[in-house]
Amino acid sequence: MKLIEFEDLPATPWKNGGGVTRELHCQPAGASFDDFLWRVSIADVSQSGAFSSFAGVDRVITLLEGEGMDLVSDSGNHVLLSRLQPHRFRGEDQITAELAGGACQDFNLMLRRGAVAGEVRVWSVDQDLEQGCNLLFCVQGRWDVLAQDGEHATLEPRQSLVWEERPGQVSLRSLSAGSILIGVNINLQ
In sequence order, what are the residues at sequence separation of 6 or more whose Cβ sits closer than 8 angstroms to the Cβ of residue 32? Predict the structure, then answer.
């Protein structure tokens, strides 16, 4: 179990100047965009613009803050992201993000297609996860996390916990009203 403080993560500016990204975790550690298996990051989006293309990568994006983001594909499909509703799409799809009301922040999971599969789940009530998970991110409130092997942590807002391998059963207990937690599960294919 590794605790990650959001404020300790370096902000990497986008090439197009439309925002910055902070990488929470990448597997394998230190992998480039060409050879990661899975990657989790948080992006601060300051203006509308095109998404970078990632051929062979499946993506799941979840709006954390902001009034919304309209994802428009080159085929004309529109998906309005609302807060804490994960949306999956293919990394090679030509997508333009149109901000609904100014800057926003989103949580991103990227998965190398054919090597790994994964999901993003959002919880606001206590959970007992039989198979654990690979990463937890506290959106708001406070959460007690107890793993089957006895490891324990309390997550505050914008803190993450990462396991290299799923720890087996994990209990998640909300410590305050309105607590929200994001979980990421990864499966090798």
Answer: none
Sheet holding 127-129, edge to edge: 127-129, 170-174, 143-147, 152-155
Contacts of 116 (CB under 8 A, 6+ apart): 37, 38, 186, 187, 188, 189
3 state DSSP class of 30: coil
pTM of the model: 0.94
Q: Which residue(s) pair with 95 in the sheet?
A: 73
| Calpha distance 82→88 (Å, rounded) | 13
Kindly tell me if the per-residue pLDDT of 109 is higher than 90.
Answer: yes
Cross-strand pairs, 98: 70
pLDDT tops 90 at residue 60 = yes
Name the 3-class secondary structure at 8.
helix
Asked if residues 118 and 38 have their Cβ atoms less than 8 Å apart, the reply is yes
- List, for residues 117-132, the tens digit of each pLDDT value: 999 999 999 999 998 8
Q: What counts of helices (H) and strands (E) characterise the chain?
A: 0, 19
Backbone angles phi, psi at 8, to 5 degrees: -85, -10
